[in-house]
Design goal:
Blueprint lengths: L6 H20 L4 H19 L2 H5 L28 H11 L4 H16 L2
Helix pairs in contact: 1-2
Length: 117
């Protein structure tokens, strides 16, 4: 399976190759050079159109977003200092009564029962 972690960089490299091929086509003088660069531009455009991120992500625009990191953000790391009676009651009723292992086993049993039909 292909890792899409660095897919933005691959898109940028392919875009640069396409731009350079178009510049070379515009500056070509001989018939052979025009044919060669036209074929290269067609191949690169085909590769660009086949990028899975454009189809899987349902992309409408092929601009790669650049994220800005705000280093001024501050969050205290102290936990809540006071847990009241309402918080303890909520936790007792809604959080502690959930048995995740039993839920997982029930879901697995339902899937196995469906598979037997």
């Amino acid at each position: 399976m292909k890792s899409y972690r660095f897919f933005g960089d691959e898109m940028e490299v392919l875009g640069n190759r396409l731009d350079n091929a178009r510049k070379s086509l515009a500056g070509a003088r001989s018939a052979w050079a025009k044919s060669y660069w036209a074929n290269n531009v067609e191949r690169l455009l085909f590769q660009w159109r086949q990028l899975p991120i454009l189809h899987d992500g349902e992309a409408m625009v092929t601009i790669i977003p650049r994220w800005n990191v705000d280093y001024e953000f501050y969050e205290t790391c102290r936990p809540h200092e006071y847990v009241g009676i309402t918080d303890r009651a909520y936790n007792k009723v809604f959080r502690e009564s959930i048995d995740l292992d039993a839920s997982w086993h029930n879901h697995r049993e339902q899937r196995l029962a469906k598979a037997q039909y």
